[in-house]
């Protein structure tokens, strides 16, 4: 058996319907016994696209033709490196510890500084007291909404 060329194609879909379209593509591949599609990927945090691994764009166009919520194949190929970036889990080590001073970089307290009271690693949240108020205001926010200013 000769080796088949496998490429990744991005299928444009209606936002919020990525999983439904992936399931419909899978059903159509099984019903029509198509062997040229190898995988269907719904990248997390990438709204409006489903990635299909196939031998050619003509196969992908055929399989999505007339499919509800499928809007077409995006021009070009998706590289393996780009795909790995989309689906790999980024390990974020908490660099913020209790007692550190941080600056809020987004949200209603943006630009203000605070002192970290508690870090909840499981939730990815930090509890801090805003320094610019007359009395301590404990505020809970996501770790990506703050950046360290001073370490203790």
Characteristic key phrases:
Alpha-Beta Plaits; SH3 type barrels; 9 strands; four-stranded antiparallel sheet; 3 helices; 20% helix; five-stranded antiparallel sheet; 152 residues; 2 domains; alpha+beta
Can you walk me through this structure?
- With 152 residues, this protein is an alpha+beta fold.
- The chain has two domains: 7-87, Alpha-Beta Plaits (2-Layer Sandwich), CATH 3.30.70.940; 101-150, Roll (SH3 type barrels).
- Helix content is 20%, strand content 33%.
- The protein contains three helices and nine strands.
- The chain has helices at residues 18-31, 57-64, 80-87, and strands at residues 7-13, 37-41, 49-54, 70-73, 101-104, 113-120, 125-130, 138-142, 146-150.
- The strands form two sheets. The chain has a five-stranded antiparallel β-sheet, with no helix packed on it. The protein has a four-stranded antiparallel β-sheet with strand order 2-3-1-4, with helices on one face.
């Amino acid at each position: 058996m000769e080796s088949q060329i496998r490429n990744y194609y991005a299928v444009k879909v209606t936002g919020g319907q990525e999983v439904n379209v992936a399931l419909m593509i899978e059903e159509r591949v099984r019903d029509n016994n198509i062997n040229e599609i190898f995988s269907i990927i719904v990248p997390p945090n990438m709204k409006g696209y489903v990635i299909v691994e196939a031998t050619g764009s003509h196969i992908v166009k055929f399989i999505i033709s007339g499919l509800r919520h499928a809007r077409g194949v995006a021009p070009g190929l998706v590289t393996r490196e780009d795909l790995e970036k989309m689906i790999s889990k980024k390990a974020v080590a908490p660099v913020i510890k209790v007692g550190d001073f941080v600056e809020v970089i987004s949200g209603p307290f943006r630009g203000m500084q605070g002192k970290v009271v508690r870090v909840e690693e499981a939730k990815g949240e930090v509890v801090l007291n805003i320094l610019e108020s007359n009395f301590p205001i404990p505020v809970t926010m996501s770790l990506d909404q703050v950046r360290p200013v001073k370490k203790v």
